[in-house]
Amino acid sequence: MSRTLVALTRLVVVAGVMAITGVACRNAPPGAMDYVGKVEAARAAKDANFRATNDPVPEDKKAEFLPLAYFPVDPDYNVPGVLRPSTDSPTMMMPTSTGQQRQMRRVGVLEFTLKGQPMKLTAFVEEGAADLNRLFVPFSDMTSGTETYPAGRYMDLDRTSTGVYEVDFNYAYHPYCYFNITYDCPFPPAENRLKVPIHAGEKLKS
Predict the structure, then answer these.
(1) Which helix (H) or strand (E) holds 198?
(2) In whole angstroms, what is the distance from residue 151 CA to residue 88 CA?
(3) Which residues pair with 186 in a beta bridge?
(4) Cα(120)–Cα(110) distance, integer angstroms
(5) Residues ≥6 apart with Cβ < 8 Å to 17
(6) Gap between the Cα atoms of 70 and 68, Å rounded
(7) Taking a C-beta distance cutoff of 8 angstroms, is the pair 87, 191 a contact?
(8) Which of 31-35, 155-159, 199-203 shows the lowest per-residue confidence on average (mean pLDDT)?
(9) Is the pLDDT of residue 2 over 70?
(10) How many Cβ atoms are within 10 Å of 140's Cβ, its own excluded?
(11) DSSP per-residue letters across 54-93
(12) Is 206 helix (H, G, I), strand (E, B) or coil?
């Protein structure tokens, strides 16, 4: 199994844990688990998953990287977005951390307003991918290289039938090449380089 497939499998496992957490939250007394609590529970589940295996974080790196570092949960970084079909070239070659080129297909442009500023990010799927319902949103921002990984961060979104999405930067995560250089991680393209700092999601250990 390729490292890309392993990474996707890990994300599915984490998503499953998050789904279980969501069920627990629904069964909790009203107000017992608010939005901040849900995000923090998902983060704890991801830490537990990473501790349980040596991939993506090798055993000799666990003390260095775990628990993962995050910006404080900020509900203002969770905003609605609308996916507009892309008018640019449908496919592009996206450079990766190992010097390779990954062929990606533009699905559309997410348009949203964050802290009063209109913004947009292109959503992709890998060309030839079997599952086209999971949108890949790589991005960099003004924290990249100082507070967060220089090569940027990622978000994953499940495709909706309405074209309306929850753009939640509190779930933004570092690519696995941050923990393990053997991973092949796409770099965010120029169109996804935000000109503002995004103080949400995963950050570098201090």
Answers:
(1) none
(2) 23
(3) 96
(4) 5
(5) 42, 45, 46, 48, 49
(6) 7
(7) no
(8) 31-35
(9) no
(10) 21
(11) SSSS-GGGHHHH-SPEEPPP-GGGEEEEEEEEP-S-SEEE
(12) coil
CA distance linking residue 122 with residue 89, whole number of Å? 12
Threshold 0.70, pTM exceeds: yes
Helix then strand count (H, E) for the chain reads 3, 9
164-176 per-position pLDDT tens digit: 999 999 999 999 9
Query: For residue 149, what are its two tokens?
Result: 């990984």
Q: Domain coordinates of the chain in residue numbers? A: 3-203
Q: What is the C-alpha separation between 64 and 76, in angstroms, rounded?
A: 30
For the stretch 119-124, contacts whose Cβ atoms lie closer than 8 Å and that sit 24 or more positions apart, written own/partner, are 119/194, 119/196, 121/167, 121/191, 121/192, 121/194, 122/86, 122/88, 122/189, 122/191, 122/192, 123/83, 123/157, 124/94
* 3-state SS, residue 175: coil
Which residues are CB-neighbours of 8 under 8 A, at least 6 positions away? none
Nearest to 100 by CA among 182, 191, 176: 182
Query: What CA–CA distance (Å, rounded) separates 196 from 186?
Result: 21
What pLDDT is attached to residue 26? 41
The answer to whether 36 touches 75, Cβ cutoff 8 Å, is: yes
